[in-house]
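testing teh design pipeline on a random one, pls ignore if ur not involved
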């Protein structure tokens, strides 16, 4: 089973949040509200809240699959969807790199 997959690659640049809001089935994603989605849909131009909203989405949005696994979003150039519960400590270190905080340390 895949434990992480690229949703949008870095070629979309600053428009990744906008594509997230317009291309994904948002109704299947929890932890975000409709106002935030509307803000992202407008894109980054002349949108002072775009990056704050995107940060909130990355910190709070998730999807629960049919097996009950929780998938979260992570951006490091590309936008990823990952399932922490399915990853080993080694895989987490490889996936998150310097952003990984080992809770057991």
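output:
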């Amino acid at each position: 089973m895949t434990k992480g997959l690229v949703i949008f690659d870095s070629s979309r640049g600053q428009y990744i949040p906008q594509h997230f809001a317009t291309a994904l089935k948002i109704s299947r994603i929890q932890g975000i509200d409709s106002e935030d989605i509307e803000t992202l849909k407008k894109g980054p131009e002349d949108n002072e809240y775009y990056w704050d909203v995107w940060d909130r989405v990355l910190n709070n949005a998730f999807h629960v699959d049919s097996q009950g696994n929780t998938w979260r979003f992570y951006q490091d150039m590309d936008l990823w969807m990952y399932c922490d519960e399915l990853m080993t400590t080694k895989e987490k270190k490889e996936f998150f790199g310097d952003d990984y905080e080992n809770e057991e340390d």
